[in-house]
């Protein structure tokens, strides 16, 4: 697991910045002078000469500080050994460093708000009513620094649509600076029940935009219980219909746990009959963070125990010619008949493999575990030997 937000060590030299700085990381000491004011030079070893002009110098342990230019210098802990050329960081006045973008990551996740209009019982990012509009300002400054080859950017929260027009400014910036990058907005879909909000998604005219919307049951009362909001089921369905009506691609996301697994086949049939136009359906394992951890006794079920329902649901969707994937499950616990639908979906910064995986011939294809699986995981994990 990678730590993306950690304190630095400014004891090397006090920082002289009056505001948080968004900086592009480079290891090139010959970096163009015109770009250095928005860049941080990453020093891995003693250099014979380091030219100045950079907004900041980031140094590993063991670097001779006397060789460094007389400017802002931040020492890096071992937690930040992953930093590399092309990454983008925010350095705060109190010397804390947050990694906003990693060029080598499989996908980039941007948390745009912690506010939400739902209160899902298994939410891994529990909502907070905080003033976090500054996050969009940070991303708007950072996005022009992202590498054009970035495969995907995931917009997550909280509920991103609560930002209103600020969200769509962000989407337009991504379209302008990363025109070949897929954008995936994770929304509960409820605000899109307002056709005007749905129209704003369509008006972005992004060539590769998808909105991921959770649907937890074919029964309104059960969906509303999971999201802890009366009327959410109807709003969610109207939101999905509005988005698709306007040509916005929609993914339906189903998190499987003790409250939802029994009706998984029925939900799949409901989707196949009524929402066959869905561009993708993701059947997802549980991440034991936030409320999921607090409610673990009511939510946890060993995935082996719902393989019958998962297999039937998968085939119901596939038979309806709906693109279907299984997320957050280990190959060894999946029925062999549906392993081919499993994908590596866990963000690499919180992805791990457990001791039970040693000797498995399928590790390179398996999605592994959330780091929170140290709390609880299937009792049936075992290496696949082929």
Supply database-style keywords.
386 residues, alpha/beta, TIM Barrel, 2 domains, seven-stranded parallel β-sheet, 16 strands
Structure description:
It contains 9 helices and 16 strands. A 7-stranded mixed sheet has the order 1-7-6-2-3-4-5. α6 packs parallel to α9 (307-319). With 386 residues, the chain is an alpha/beta fold. It has helices at 134-142, 165-177, 195-204, 220-227, 232-245, 264-274, 291-294, 296-299, 307-319, and strands spanning 5-7, 21-26, 39-43, 56-59, 73-75, 88-91, 96-101, 108-111, 152-156, 182-186, 209-214, 249-255, 280-284, 324-327, 351-352, 369-370. The two termini are 28 Å apart. The chain has 2 domains: 5-101, no CATH class; 108-374, Alpha-Beta Barrel (TIM Barrel). The chain is globular, with a radius of gyration of 23 Å. The longest helix is centred in the middle third of the chain and has 14 residues, at 232-245. Helices cover 22% and strands 18% of the residues.
List the helices and strands and how they pair.
Elements: E1 5-7, E2 21-26, E3 39-43, E4 56-59, E5 73-75, E6 88-91, E7 96-101, E8 108-111, H1 134-142, E9 152-156, H2 165-177, E10 182-186, H3 195-204, E11 209-214, H4 220-227, H5 232-245, E12 249-255, H6 264-274, E13 280-284, H7 291-294, H8 296-299, H9 307-319, E14 324-327, E15 351-352, E16 369-370
Parallel strand pairs: 2-3, 3-4, 4-5, 8-9, 9-10, 10-11, 11-12, 12-13, 13-14
Antiparallel strand pairs: 1-7, 2-6, 6-7, 15-16
